[in-house]
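Exam revision sheet. Question 4 asks you to relate a sequence to its structure. Input first:
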Amino acid sequence: MIKLVVRLEKIAALISHVPAVIAAGMLFVLMLLTVAGVFMRKVMADPIIGMQEYSEACLVVVIFFFLTYSGWTGGQIAVDLISSVVKGTPRRVLFSLISAISAGLMGIISWQLFKQGSEVGELGMSFNLTLIPHEPFYYIAGIGCGFYTLVLVVMAWRLALGLPEVPEE
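Answer key, structure tokens:
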């Protein structure tokens, strides 16, 4: 059983790092786009049409692709009131259960994003000014949530086996 968890940990580590690199690249693109937008607006007096929409599109990639990495490394902010009251095995079981339930919910969210993405694609919905279709961004969000689902499953398993929640890199 531990060998299976170790294999899943390696897959989860890879799945969390690859999208994070893509998100970091997109964050760099967003920074360049912002600088170019400010330059064009202030210096050239000719703003980039659809700048807000380009920024929103970039942010979808950044947020949903960093989600998995943040979850894998324990980077999310958490208020832990339970640990002060519940200790030892009951805490481990409770946190494992919470991770498993969270994985189920993220799996449902991922599935719904893919479902909504196909509906949005059929309707031909797009941004107003740039006419960039919304459909791929639903799929990007669905992929990010799907990857995070795997991370939550691995964390639930780790906790159930008595291992620390966040693996050491």
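Marking note for examiners. The chain has one domain: 2-160.
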